[in-house]
Amino acid sequence: MAAQASTGQAAAQPQARRFSSLAPGRPPAIHASAALAHAWAGAIVCYWQAGLASGAVDAARPLYLLDLAPGRGQLAWLLLGALQRRLAEAGLELRPCLAACGDDDEAAASLLQHGYLQHLASEGCFDTARFDSAGATLSLRHQGMALRHAGNPLVILAPGCFETLPSELYWLHQGQPREARVSFGHEAQAARPLEYQWQVCDEAALPDGAAPLLRHYLARASGACVLLPLAACALLDALARFGNCGSLLLAADHGCDSEQQIRLGGLHPPSCWPADGGQAPALPLNVHALRLHQQARGAWTWSRQLEHGGLIVHAAGDAPPHAAGAIIAALAAAHPDEQPALQDAARGAGHNASSLLALLRLSHHDPLVLQAGLQAMLDAPPVLSDLARRDWRQALAATWHNYLPLDGDEPFYRDAGLLAAHLGHWGLAKACLRLGLDWHGDDAGELYLLACCEAASGGADVAAGLLARASALAPELPHVTGLAADIGARLQRRLASACFHEHEPDAAGLRLEPLGEEHAASLLYQYRDEQIAVLTRLPDLDTLEQVQAWIRDEQQIPSLNSYAVMHDCWGFAGCVSLHCAGTDGYFHFWTGTDFQDAGVGQGAAALLFDMAVRRGVRRLFTSAYLDNQRSLHALGRLGFTRLPARALAPDDTLLFLQRPCADGQQQGDEEACAGLYSLCAAIGSPFQFIHNEGVKHVIE
Question: Residues with Cβ < 8 Å from 55, sequence gap 6 or more?
């Protein structure tokens, strides 16, 4: 084999050099999955809990996590979010700060310029840093300070870090370790052959940390080639000096993790190396040696590899045995090599919403898992039950929370927005599409989609501005001009409404807009509870055509002001109306099936009452059936009081109520009842009244 090309003990040729001078290539990037972040966050919280119990953790000081391979920030984003949830579940108030370590100032600046990470940095949760191994000092760029010790137990994150560091190569030959010296062959080709020379080692001249490892392998793996990760060992020693209160290492690398793998040639050196400028191969990491090194310093270690040649997740720490068991149990819940299988399964499950949802939950709401099956789901949008729609909304929101936008992943935000719109989660749909516009600039199609979402959630005025921007980019798009005309008509109805007054959404995200046929489909869906029609004296509305006809009839009554209640996130939530004559108005409302008992009726009523005052209305009347206790309690909370007025059958089970507007004084029963009778006659109400003298009652 190449490792036995020369066993002579002659001095190396002048051009020969240490094997560690060959800088290994960078292996494939390790995907920071949501499941891995969830598992690692669980392990970290277990470690901190053990530190709190032993007194090693000072809760008043920051808890630093050093990310030695931060990449583009995905692990930082996912892990900090998972830590926030895990700490909340455990009832802990701690101050984690993740420092993305690296010497590249430009890359560090790029991380801090990302809006999401910049926000975390402003809260003290994230920073970029340079770690000086020689001085065991951490320099935080954003906070502008240098630390000589962590002040609390340190968490070291190293996904794919150690295998990029140089290793020394030895051959265990006839009871003696021989150190490799390498030189390049003379062939002028892209991949130059490596020529190995093996020198007998003088133990006194061995690099730091090599001797005990070589003694171990001479006794256990004679005849094998071994790579010793001495640079990684030295880095861990420097980090141990910095984290002088203890440390927890969480890492993942390709390589060998057992003596058997080493004996079977898992660390056999390469036979050739690319010429200058070529892509160097990745070299396997001797994780087994790294674990031996840490065990010699009193740490417990753990590792897991799913397949030979696959990633090895490895951990080490100083927690007591009972805590180490909990940490290991948390780590065993996820492995990076499981992620591709989940994505493959999601690609096949895109046409089955239930299967894709199950995979999404299994992945802890990983955006890449959703993305794998999303296009198939959008190609044939499923018909979902109410419960399935609820679960999908929750899952999509959690997945979006895990998403870190990066260059090159443009389709995801748009497709996630389309799915959110299909689910009726207009708030999330708008967030997705706005992110795309902020990140990549205006696009006519995406401006149109965002305008549709605004229009569906009460923002017709916002939609008009978006459509103007879309039209400026693409004047001939028919769907843009068509929606613009529809929005223009809606805005004209606002101006024509006697009561309507422009307003921003209230604290709960509610606003009103004149009821129109554009609300028909949503109204029909929210009207599906049959009790709504029974308790509100409204007609049966079973088809879209019936709803559209009913809305047109309502619009033909000049004194009737009917408004759709629009939620900024969920869209159509119900109806309120005010039928006016003079300074009196008859108030009517109903709340959609999905919004009952959520305070929507009271919020919408407050908005309507404000409009009524602006119109000059000074007194409001309404009614509710005696057995409609929910509405009666809601009306009581709105300030309505009962009147001693009774109607003939079939309205003899109705209770009538009054409420003054603004600072108006409550009127006596006789005067108020007279006003009720007069108003009902003026607006063409079918009620026939019997005035029952009695005492006014306040609804409890």
Answer: none
**CA–CA separation, 443 and 432 (whole Å):** 14
Q: In whole angstroms, what is the distance from residue 557 CA to residue 203 CA?
A: 101
* pLDDT over 50 at 5, yes or no: no
* Cα gap 542→538, rounded to integer Å: 12
Q: CA–CA distance from 108 to each of 71, 72, 73, 91, 118 (Å)?
A: 10, 9, 10, 33, 11
Q: If you search the block for the tokens 């690398």, which residue do you land on?
A: 253
Residue-wise pLDDT tens digits, 106-143: 999 999 999 999 999 999 999 999 999 999 999 999 99
CB 50 within 8 A of CB 323: yes
Instruction: Strands of 175-283 (E only): list them.
Output: 176-184, 191-200, 225-228, 247-256, 272-274
How far apart CA 231 and CA 500 sit, in angstroms, is: 72
Q: Which of 40, 122, 26 is nearest to 74 (CA)?
A: 40
The 3-state secondary structure of 51-74, one letter per residue: HHHHCCCCCCCCEEEEECCCCCCH
Place of tokens 């979902």: 384
CA angle, corner 77, sides to 72 and 82, nearest 5? 150
Q: What is the pLDDT of residue 476?
A: 85
Residue 575, phi then psi, degrees to nearest 5: -135, 145
Evaluate whether 7 touches 198 at the Cβ level (below 8 Å): yes
CA terminus-to-terminus distance, the chain: 92
SS3 category, 145: strand
Instruction: Name every residue whose Cβ is closer than 8 Å to that of residue 569 and which is 6 or more positions away in sequence.
Output: 425, 426, 427, 428, 457, 509
| Position 693 pLDDT exceeds 60 | no
